[in-house]
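Shipment paperwork, digital attachment
Item: protein structure file
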Amino acid sequence: MVREMTFSRFRQRLDDESGMSYVFMGMGLMAFLSASMLAIDVGMLMTSRNQAQNSADAGALAGAVALGFDNFTDRSPSGPAVTHAINAAKSNDVMAADVDVDPGDVEFLNDDNGQPTRVKVTVYRTSGRDNPMSTLIAAIFGMPNAGVGATATAEVSPADAMTCVKPFTIPDKWKEVGADAPFDPSTSEYESWTRGGNPRPLPVGEADVYIPFKNPDGTKNAGYTGYNMTNDRGTRIMIRAGNGNQITPSFYFSLTLGGTTGGSEYEWNIANCNQSIMEWGDPLIQEPGAMMGPTVHGIEALIAKDPYATWNETEKRVQGSRYTGQSPRVFPIPLYDPEYYSAGKRSGRNADLKVANWIGFFAETVDGNNIWGRITPISGIRTGADVPEGLFPITIRLVK
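Attachment content:
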């Protein structure tokens, strides 16, 4: 009897399911916590990957900006392109810690046209660089650390359009031929035609030479003679109202922007930013009159906006500006094709001015009706894929 009662009590305990819900709850809670912690690891990796890409993007863009605006040829470990790329990359943390990027991780590549205009930056948070990220649940499975890296490439691209241009134009640079060579921005005069009653092109060897970016049929030219952002950077030039049809580097023609004429509108367009977009090859419409007074007053207004900015001759850049970005004293001047203008005047063509390029100009001072300044890099707009190499203004863009 006792044995039967003991067996029966034991059987009841085996069949009793009370409390099993706690077991299932405990197991489910463990599974839920494990999945949650694993999701945290996965989320951390995804977030860190995005942050690493932001870091690489910032480094590549900063390197390209320094390449375009500071020094295009200095690609040394201590040069501006490399140092700016590293500093910008490290200023973007990955999971609250610095990425690792050294000079060897900043590479200079050729673009699709074979030009060395690209900056590639690679950043790391990995065990190989002694800065991995710690994991949570993955550590239980033998993965205490995780690594992430990212790469970005930025390009210094030529720009074929511009905004905020000033309403006056000077000729693009040409090759001075004969006794007057070489080209001098103060004294040269473009001479490719005779000046008699029956004007005709001067013979080869006597005529000055201007080679534009493209031929009329759209084919690209080799040996463009115009202003170059690298070679002409820092050149001091003086501009003043043009004298008749004479073509000299310093003589400007006043322009109408947006179809509105008049001295007050013209002066406003100098002292402020007219956001009309001007593209390469566009015809330029002359403003009636030389507009000497409005030109000088507009430039003086620009100088007054940033009076302490000066030109650093050693570094060939603007310093002392009160603006964190570009000083208002730095602006684009449209350049006209001197041969097109010269030939047009002699053939009676109406649209005798057209955009050949632009230069950046830092307005230093005004002396009477003369405006003195420096040629400096300038940013522009890229409107298409087939942009001629060598155009003065540039754009900075990510390409990979």
